[in-house]
Automatic annotation (TrEMBL):
Domain of life: Eukaryota
Organism in which the protein naturally occurs: Punica granatum (Pomegranate)
Gene Ontology MF terms in the entry: hydrolase activity
Stated name of the protein: Calcineurin-like phosphoesterase domain-containing protein
Ranges where the Calcineurin-like phosphoesterase domain occurs: 52-263
Length: 347
């Protein structure tokens, strides 16, 4: 596996099209200052009865044939007027990535995407790429060719902002459970400053989305996890700071952030921002989880001018809505303790 990321990625060309006079004036000012970056305003053929509908899904992992079949089985009719946000980890091979995004674009009017770690891994086709940066360029090119957006847009007044992100070990601030080797990676972030500023000024409702996790409270405590060091490879404080700079430090009722990566369904409001994860995840995970997802994904997070009722059930965010976190408690949960006792007995 070759995985090397820099602090910024190559920018995609930004659209010049703008239908809002306010933005036109701002754009003109920026053009004079040498900027041309602005959010594109996309039209929607939304169903008048329900208005704009935005669906979300993450962690499609279509290298598993079951998952590719699931994507293939999505209606080619029902979503023709809908938007889909794909919060990363589509597939590890370029071929499966392109097939998946092409299937989704056939089904949804607008598809937006942020890269996940699996998308950038080169381990299955290392002969094709020097490193993950080169692969990222290829994936973004493919998205552009398919009409999949990776830049901030405004659709029917709703601002949608993809946040490219990576994780960093410093994200993990809870007590360590020792005894495991820790992978680490450089953090990388990429976004579109001026386009985001335009959306902040123009839109009352904004959805941001990233593959990685912006807050540690959006993952179960490590004593609950079969891999307790997971928090070290899932998120970044910089990502939380970035989305707060968009939604406001204290959030607001029209602020929503969609994420992925950990494969745990999540729907919780923390400090005024609603955080949602709706992963397809691996086939084996769907089988053992209470709300597998095949029958209800993608999750409609926005409809008819407002955000949807919360995703339910969400085992872990439901758990933390009534149970406080105990970050200093390192006593393994019974199922984790059983797992490691069994491992110890085997060795
Ligand atoms: Fe991931």
């Amino acid at each position: 596996m070759v995985l090397r990321l820099a602090s910024s990625f190559a920018s995609l060309p930004q659209s010049r099209q703008c239908l809002n006079p306010r933005l036109e004036r701002k754009g003109l000012r920026r053009f004079k200052r040498g900027y041309v970056e602005r959010p594109q305003i996309l039209s929607s053929t939304e169903d008048a009865a329900v208005g704009l509908r935005v669906f979300v899904v993450s962690d499609l992992h279509t290298d598993y044939s079951e998952n590719m079949n699931w994507v293939n089985s999505l209606s080619t009719v029902n979503h023709k007027h809908n938007v889909l946000l794909v919060a990363g980890d589509v597939a590890e091979t370029y071929k499966n990535f392109v097939t998946t995004m092409s299937l989704l674009k056939d089904r949804f009017e607008h598809v937006l995407y942020v890269p996940g770690n699996h998308d950038l891994w080169c381990r299955r086709e290392s002969e094709n790429y020097v490193d993950s940066i080169e692969k990222l360029g290829k994936l973004l090119e493919a998205c552009k060719g398919l009409g999949v957006r990776t830049d901030p847009v405004i659709i029917e007044g709703l601002g949608i902002i993809p946040l490219f992100s990576w994780y960093h070990e410093s994200f993990d601030q809870e007590e360590d459970i020792t005894g495991f080797s820790i992978p680490s990676l450089e953090m990388a972030c990429k976004d579109y400053h001026d386009a985001i500023e335009d959306i902040k000024e123009t839109c009352d409702q904004i959805i941001t989305f990233s593959h990685f996790v912006p807050r540690q409270e959006l993952c179960p405590e490590k004593r609950m996890l079969f891999y307790p060091n997971l928090p070290k490879i899932i998120g970044s404080d910089s990502l939380e700071a970035r989305l707060r700079s968009i939604h406001g430090a204290h959030g607001n009722p029209s602020a929503c952030h969609v994420f992925g990566h950990t494969h745990f369904c999540w729907d919780a409001i923390l400090d005024g921002i609603r955080y949602v994860q709706a992963p397809l995840a691996y086939p084996r995970e769907r089988k053992r989880r209470m709300n597998g997802g095949e029958n209800w994904l993608p999750f409609c997070v926005y409809s008819n001018g407002g955000f949807a009722e919360r995703l339910s059930p969400c085992y872990w965010s439901d758990y933390y809505s009534v149970n406080p976190r105990e970050p200093h408690n390192t006593e393994l949960a019974p199922w984790v303790a059983r797992f490691y006792r069994h491992r110890t007995e085997l060795t």
